[in-house]
């Protein structure tokens, strides 16, 4: 089997930047493949939050350079879950990480699985193995060896694609007059991404009514942040093509007190009322 050589590793994790974990993983990669470029997607995923990591990886996936995609959000490290490398589109990408659903959504967006390998060949791990840091001991050296031209099938045992853990993407639904959505993600600015798109509300008026538990609030469709008035909440098509609740210069999440995973019910609001402007025409003297 012809091997690919890769020059880029795109790296996502829940390691944060306080401890040494990210730096150690990068150093292991560079000790084996010293010319590789490592791109940090994010290390700010909430600890152990596989869904958040999966969604972040999916949002980034279409913009990643071809090469290795190393992703580690791994609460099951040292347990029964498999460590895997998954080749996409005959080697355009190889995803390396735990088989816990973290990789699935991004892979589905990028193309076809052409090889799936359980990383059970210790010749491509580092010898100082522990049961708590597979990012350092397995995923980093495997990523580096792939960059150095090792064929993916030498890294372990081939496994069926259908045996890989699927990703979980919540689906919206209709309940009577309500469109039932879920908050997927709160970004750094307090915008709240929902699991619906513009098409889902194209027949709604510009004013919408949202129900969050026993709280009710009117929001307005907008095309840009600066169209949102003070104390108003807007709903906008975001950079991922999904709808987000947002506020201009403020945190929508703080203002309406909602967080990731919460359900939001949306119903049609009243049409926007235009206020007539009276024009008085004075006669010429």
| Estimated radius of gyration | 24 Å
Instruction: Examine the secondary-structure arrangement and name the CATH architecture of the largest domain.
Output: 3-Layer(aba) Sandwich
Give the strand content.
25-35%
- In one word, what is the shape? elongated
The name of the CATH topology of the largest domain is Rossmann fold
What is the H-and-E element order? Answer: EHEHEEEHEHEEEEEEEEHE
| Main sheet attributes: strand count, strand direction, barrel closure | 7 strands, mixed
The CATH superfamily of the largest domain is known as: S-adenosyl-l-methionine hydroxide adenosyltransferase, N-terminal
Average pLDDT works out at 93
Distance between the termini: 94 Å
Helix content: 10-25%
Helix/strand-derived category reads alpha+beta
Text of the CATH class of the largest domain: Alpha Beta
Total helical segments? 5
Physical arrangement of strands within the biggest beta sheet: 2-1-3-5-4-6-7
Number of domains: 2
Number of strands: 15
Point out poorly predicted stretches: 274-278
Q: Mind explaining what this structure looks like?
A:
By secondary structure, this protein is α+β, with helices and mostly antiparallel strands. The chain is built from five helices and 15 strands. A hairpin with a 2-residue loop joins strand 8 (173-175) and strand 9 (178-186). A seven-stranded mixed beta sheet has the order 2-1-3-5-4-6-7, with helices on both faces. The termini are far apart. The relative contact order is 0.13.
Offer a concise description of the structure.
By secondary structure, this protein is α+β, with helices and mostly antiparallel strands. Helix content is 18%, strand content 28%. Helix 2 runs parallel beside helix 3.
